[in-house]
Amino acid sequence: MANLRPLVVFILVMWALMIVGGGILVLLVAPLELDCCGDQGPLASSAAKAAITLGLVALWILILSWMKKTMLHGMMR
Questions:
Q1: Residue 7: which pLDDT band, with cuts at 50, 70 and 90?
Q2: Rounded to 5 degrees, what are φ and ψ at 33?
Q3: In this predicted model, what pLDDT tens digit does every residue of 13-64 receive, in sequence order?
Q4: CA–CA distances in Å: residue 34 to residues 45, 47, 51, 66
Q5: What does the H/E/C string look like for the chain?
């Protein structure tokens, strides 16, 4: 059972990232409105939301990749 402990931690962190990330996107990013671009305002807002979302997804992938490498390195010892 001790061998499964890193895997359980990885899965819990992965779910926590998804839940927290969903909350961030719904509560902070979705209501974002840019009033800087006149007629192009909705398009600019959508582009900004997409950029923020892609940045967060990339961050989550980097975190999970780092955790996986760390976990596998520790298991190989």
A1: confident
A2: -135, 130
A3: 889 989 999 999 999 999 988 777 777 878 888 999 999 999 999 999 999 8
A4: 5, 10, 14, 34
A5: CHHHHHHHHHHHHHHHHHHHHHHHHHHHHCCCCCCCCHHHHHHHHHHHHHHHHHHHHHHHHHHHHHHHHHHHHHHHC
* Burial environment of residue 29 by CB neighbours within 10 A (0 to 12, 13 to 18, 19 or more): middle
- Nearest CA to 43 out of 35, 52, 31, 53 is that of 35
Q: What angle do CA 40, 43, 44 make, to 5 degrees?
A: 80
User: Do 49 and 29 contact (CB within 8 A), yes or no?
Assistant: yes
**Burial group, residue 5, by CB count within 10 angstroms (0-12, 13-18, 19+):** exposed
